[in-house]
Amino acid sequence: MESRPTLPAQLLSFGEQLRDEGVSVGTSELLDCFAALAQVSWTSQADFKEALSATLAKSPEDRRTFDRVFDRFMFRAVEAQAIGPEMSERLGEGGGAAMQDLSGSELEALREQIAEALADGSEGALRDLALLAIAAFSREAEGSGVIGVDVQRIRRALGLRAEQQQPGPHGQDARRPGLSREALRRFEALLREELERAQARRTQKLPPARPLNELDRALPSGPLADLAAVHRVVAQLRRRLATQGMQARGRRTHAHVDVRRTMRASLQTGGVPVELKFRPRRPRRPEIYVLCDVSTSVTSASVFFLSVLHALHDAFRKMRSFVFIERVSEVTDVFEHERDFRAISEKIGKDAGVADISGYTDYGRVFREMLELVEDDLHPRATLIVLGDARTNGRDPRSDLFGALAAKAGRTFWLNPEPRLYWNYGDSVIAAYERHCTAFECWTTAQLEDFVKALTRPVNRAA
Amino acid sequence: MEPSAPRTIADVEEGLREAGYLPSRAAALVSHLAVTLGKPVLVEGPAGVGKTELAKALSSMLGRPLVRLQCYEGLDEAKALYEWNYRKQLLRIQASESERQDEWESLQEDIFGEEFLLTRPLMRAIASEQPVVLLIDEIDKTDQEFEAMLLEVLSDFQISIPELGVVRARTQPVVVLTSNNSRELTEALKRRCLYLWLDYPCLEHELAIVRLHAPELSETVARRLVEVVGMVRDLDLKKPPSIAESIDWARALLLLGASDIDTDTFNETMSVIVKHRTDMDIVAERVGIKLGERAEAERAAEGADASTVDLST
User: Fold this and answer.
1) Which residue of B has its CA nearest to A242?
2) How many CA atoms lie within 13 A of B298 on its CB side?
3) How far does Cα B81 stand from its chain's mean position?
4) pLDDT tens track for A190-225
5) In chain B, which residue's Cα lies nearest the Cα of A55?
6) What does pTM read for this prediction?
7) Any residues with CB less than 8 A from the CB of B290 and at least 6 apart, and which?
8) Alpha-carbon gap, residue B303 to B313, rounded angstroms
9) Does B10 touch chain A (CB under 8 A)?
């Protein structure tokens, strides 16, 4: 026992493992952890674990990683203690000896037990049973290697069925398989967890299930996975836009004195205007118009654009969005009524009415229509954002119309999904538009973040 | 440490329960750590799972007053920490007529005294004679700059005022920060806090909470209610119902004297738990059907049990 690493050493190595998995654990956190452990009883694993996670894992994502690492760590510790293969053999059996030859009646017994435990809702028993089931089946057949498949295989072999959706004519008397969906899902989750853990042990690695850290892929491939990241950036954008008014207040050297309120305040000090009252500078309420290209030339980027739109809609109340290929159509309603991103992109693809005759963008026409649509609504407090590659397919760019739009709106931004290198080559006419707006290269979430940062820079614009 | 300080986690659990808050094991444990270690707690989770309530319960359990700082966009030092009452300062200057040099110096010292300081929540919590529970609510609504300003308060429990020097906490406050996770908080802030993730409670736990707050509601209705709320939460909604809304609903049902939740009662009272136009459509459609189905199944079962009894019951 004496040669074993001490608890501090163990904890430090645990912290090290967490760091390896991308959880940021600082020295101060480890110190907290020691302090916390002095306050809880170590005999209860739940308390021990909670004390660790309260001090080490400080976001929902970190919690998930923490659980995995904790399980792996504890398992390794147990394994290291059980020296020799025979010991781990016995551990692996875990009551599975009775399963050696799996006859129908034993299967039935196991099924009954699981159903019972599901009804009781006792987590511990259920976990044991899940382990038992896995042990039994890994003996029978080699795992497929795909966890989802294994889970379903085990469930089917155990004859666990969900209750029927409709009671049917002979509904209520068929008492036998009545497992609630909810309970079954729980058992499946446990099975999955245990299988994942088994896999983690076999490969001595965490399942590689966290692609969240690599958002800087060249082009976003999995829109739904990226959605969360885009949402985060847009939430930041919202905050920045909302507090812009505050910044303006700080920079402005003179403010308008509110004479009436100053006089009124001076009554308190005997008519001496001790305290000057200024007109409040109202923070701008951002009103956003987004024009998004969904034509074929930006197919790969338009998924990204749509997710930006989607996120923008979540963050801003006063927002109108338009998509275009050859003509413009407003899709504000689609975003307002549909929350599911997949459904939105489908809807827009199908019936947004973008009049996709040739499939080629016609910027001139788009801007003319856009001007007709929103000319009266645009005002100096509005922000216009165009998402597009500015490739006109040889048609007239009509930058004068765009200029008119930009003049109406307070600020205009252009997000171009092409690398800056390709700008103004071929039929790209971004230079013509850039005279009226600020253009950004934007095809990754990192660049979107840059755009957000640029937004907060002081704007030199006549008020 | 005051006499009422709880010793064990079980004590904390019991104390919170007495204060009308049913904590999960994790919540009790982290509260215990917060009190004994004197570290701030960052509580995160969806809206309405009782993050703010936890702080209130803690304050009533420990018998300490609650100082609350509600955060919002654009909250600044003047509203959170302190402000000089410069109107009063000016009056003070006017009141002293003399022009002599030594008097001016004493005056200068005088007008930057505590007398002229308007204390705001953070300052109040720090300077308070008796220990307090400080609740910084919805910290994610503020800017990162404000978070940075909090760091001094949270790690050293002190506030530096250029004119006065450093104000140190006379007593150690228990600090609870809540966040709806609407943005990622800075690492620096997280590092100084214990972390507690509160999620929607499991069915039994929520049932206990509802029963605690609406004890007159019968067991069966309460159970049914919690089941339905769970069902609604499973749907993909803009804003899933919170625990507070379950409790409101329970009270509404009590007022209406409902003895069961059937399709009609549900449709009438749904607005208590669902608060978006689009959400209401989804819920009415999905849950309404389920309720209807179940009622039918029950009626059929009753019919099978007592086949001769007429159906009017």
Assistant:
1) B73
2) 9
3) 21
4) 777 777 767 666 665 554 433 323 333 333 334 444
5) B194
6) 0.58
7) B231
8) 10
9) no
Whether the ipTM is more than 0.95: the answer is: no
Q: Do B37 and A275 touch (CB under 8 A)?
A: no
> Per the structure block, which two tokens stand in for A153?
């295989």
Q: Is B181 left (phi over 0), alpha (psi -120 to 50) or beta?
A: left
CB A393 within 8 A of CB A360: yes
Task: Establish if A58 touches chain B: CB-CB under 8 angstroms.
Answer: yes
A453 in contact with B, Cβ within 8 Å: no
Contacts made by residues A25-30, CB under 8 angstroms, sequence distance 24+: A25/A56, A26/B191, A28/B191, A28/B192, A29/A55, A29/A56, A29/B191, A30/A56
- For the stretch A133-183, pLDDT in tens is 777 776 555 555 566 677 777 777 776 665 544 444 443 433 444 566 667
Distance CA A136, CA A157 (A): 11
Q: Which of A218-222, B248-252, B264-268 has the lowest mean pLDDT?
A: A218-222
Residue B46 near residue B199, CB atoms below 8 Å: yes
Q: Which residues fall within 8 angstroms of residue B30, CB to CB, at 6 or more apart?
A: A50, A54, B41, B194, B195, B196
* CA A19 – CA A13 distance, rounded (Å): 10
Is B33–A172 a contact, with Cβ atoms under 8 angstroms apart? no
